[in-house]
Amino acid sequence: MAGSTQPKFASLHDVELCGLAATGERRAFGELVRRHGSAVRALLRRMGAQPSQADDVAQDAFITAFERIAEFRGEGTFVAWVRRIAARLYLKRMQRERRLGELAEEPSEADPVGGPEAEAVIDLDAALKTLATGERVCVTLCFGAGLSHAEAAEALNLPLGTVKSHVKRGLDKLRARLAPLAGADLEGRRGNG
After folding, report:
1. For residue 176, what are the contacts with CB-CB under 8 A and spacing of at least 6?
2. pLDDT at residue 141 tops 70
């Protein structure tokens, strides 16, 4: 009979689950982790984390989110909120490991952006891996985690102009790498139509 008095967590909206979690209902928070864990890990992998490191940081992010769940006001989505937490935790880890020095470096002109060896399938993760570290992190923070340029600059402890430059260069490289693939797909459709 315990099942009839317990809410069906799977049918509740994220905001309702957050409210229950704020009262100490761990199973409600467990449902949030089940729903959004893979999205958080995917963001971290796109930022450059190895799979095991992405798992560790995602776990830390959800622990932090659980501890601070009362701060979530439902003004945005829960998944965006926990992604921002995860991104910031990952950046702190990178800083501790002294890898952020690469972010201040200007990429060389020889950075790959695609070409004839590009595959016919659009693979965003593979395309992101071709970017310089600074470009990949800035693009992922601004477009994957939903941070503004100013928030990314603050999180990375970089000048706003540097973040904007990394994002612009990164997006330009992604467009150059992915545009021929999209164009080839359109050409194929025109020929078959």
Report:
1. 113, 114
2. yes
The alpha helices in the chain, defined as continuous H runs, are 2-5, 14-22, 26-47, 51-67, 78-96, 124-129, 133-139, 149-156, 160-192
At residue 26, what is the residue type? Answer: R
CB 36, CB 79: distance < 8 Å: yes
The reply to whether the predicted model has a pTM over 0.85 is no
Residue of 81, 79, 80, 63 lying closest to 71 (CA atoms): 81
Helix orientation angle between 26-47 and 14-22, rounded to the nearest 10 degrees = 120
Helix intervals (H) in 145-159: 149-156
Which tens digits make up the pLDDT trace of 117-135?
Answer: 444 456 777 888 888 888 9
DSSP designation for 97:
T
Match 């982790």 to its residue by tokens: 33
Structural domains of the chain, ranges and CATH numbers in brackets: 9-101 (1.10.1740.10), 114-193 (1.10.10.10)
